[in-house]
Amino acid sequence: MTGPVVVGIDGSSTCTSAAWWAAREAAVRQVPLHLVHSWTTQPHGMPGGMEAEGQRRYGQDVLRQTATELLHRYAGLRLTTEMVAAPAAQDLLDRSRDAELLVLGSRAPGSAAGFLLGSTARHVVGLTRCPAVVVRRDDPTVEVGRGPAGAADRDEIVVGVPEPGPAADAVLEFAFTTADARGDVVRAVTAVRRFPGAPDDGDPRAGLAAALAPWQVKFPGVGVVERVAAGPADQVLLTSCARSRLLVVGRRPHPSHVAWELRPTVHAAVRHAPCPVAVVPHG
């Protein structure tokens, strides 16, 4: 059985954008959408000191209002809601074992005020078992309310492809599955570094083609654009996103659930990409 798309909401405009993106993705994938609110985790900017009963009422109102708006737009959507007492990050990580994907809200790219709403989303993106999609507030690719998304010309899923192997397979499976459901093109990107005296590690274009080959057979209806470019991986990926509806990057597993960090490419993608970013665990 396919798991649901799970999105954590807190009533903020940031999480509203994430909820609308998640609703459309669940509708396209034909899977359930599950809205979760942690009443013990205060939304960013909410005045402190609210009593427990008031926090619960607030959470119930947020869930009810969000569900009503989403069902008005996506009438056939299978939608459930749940209010939990567990901290938001821990609850979402627990759900990542069975979810199709998690969806999280983000502030504006490069915001100095904080990264991904602070520690909650950092923790989730760094440790989730399933892919996590980060959606920033007012993202032009996101359809909110009854109006259309503002970037209708975006029709590509950009994916950063490492060397052939389990890491490449994980991100390519997610990218091709998403593109197939949406009718988008996959732009597969590999970054290479060349410097004097560096050993020749083969033709990177041949390596990219080899990594793509089985997925092109499995998804023959998905168009593919290949790009191999020299430079740091984060810069190469960000310059490939002009027509991107979604950027897909991989994340290595962490040996510890206490000490972890996002590698620079993932960190840069989430902070600066002009579209939602899917972080796919692999290995």
Automatic annotation (TrEMBL):
Belongs to the universal stress protein A family. PANTHER family: STRESS RESPONSE PROTEIN NHAX, UNIVERSAL STRESS PROTEIN UP12. This is Universal stress protein. InterPro entries: Rossmann-like_a/b/a_fold, Universal_stress_UspA, UspA. SUPFAM superfamilies: Adenine nucleotide alpha hydrolases-like. Residues 1-136, 157-281 form the UspA domain. Pfam families: Usp (PF00582).
